[in-house]
Amino acid sequence: MRDDQFEVSTVRDSDVIHANKKDIPCIFRVTTSSMVGVRHHTLMLADTENEKTKWVVALNELHRILRRNKLPNRQIFSAHEVVDGSVTLIKNAVCGTVIDPDRLLLGAEEGLFCVDLDNCEIARIGDGKKIVCLEYISEEQLIMVIAGRQRQVKLVPVRALGGEDVEWIKVSGQDRVELRALRCSSTEKLLQIFVLCKGLVFILSDI
């Protein structure tokens, strides 16, 4: 409601071309800016046209009161579109993590990809096996992934993101285990990998 782009309005036939004609008088639209520079529209259906009018008036009046009283915006994060959502890779991505302010890692059916936001480039890392899950261990400068049909846990040195031909390290002790998720705990002398397998948690390896 504190969104400057917040707006509630009625709709025209051309706005809801797939709607049932008898429902159109009962439909109203709520507009917000879910991401900076991007407006998001949500269609709502009231029981009656009179009920719709009440909602439109009430929501707009509440928004006006909030703006008039200048209540502080307590929003912690604001969303920004950093990559075009129409890119096939983005649509197929199943996991991701932030490496630093300029780089994101995405795991997809086609493999592991590094998105360089500064240079607007996307580069494939490794051999293209499906990435099911990934996590960045900043203290160790390692990326932990669950990869391939066998869902193997592997460690990828961060320097691989710079284009170096670096071998991925396969973690032992995971044969025939259907891995669902992973987590790590790192100290100065020990790196433990925790694996979720069919509802149970195992310490897979101490490195």
TrEMBL record:
GO cellular component entries: cytoplasm; cytoskeleton
Single Gene Ontology MF annotation: protein serine/threonine kinase activity
Region forming the signal peptide: none
Listed InterPro entries: CNH_dom, MRCK/ROCK_PH, PH-like_dom_sf, PH_domain, Rho-assoc_Ser/Thr_Kinase
GO biological process: actomyosin structure organization
Domain of life of the native organism: Eukaryota
Record-annotated membrane-spanning stretches: none
Residues covered by the PH domain: 1-64
Keywords annotated in UniProt: Kinase, Transferase
Residues forming coiled coils: none
Pfam families: CNH (PF00780), PH_MRCK (PF25346)
Gene3D superfamilies: Pleckstrin-homology domain (PH domain)/Phosphotyrosine-binding domain (PTB)
Keyword Transferase attributed: yes
PANTHER family documented for this protein: MYOTONIC DYSTROPHY S/T KINASE-RELATED, SERINE_THREONINE-PROTEIN KINASE GENGHIS KHAN
Protein name: Serine/threonine-protein kinase Genghis Khan
Species: Chionoecetes opilio
Gene expressing this chain: gek_0
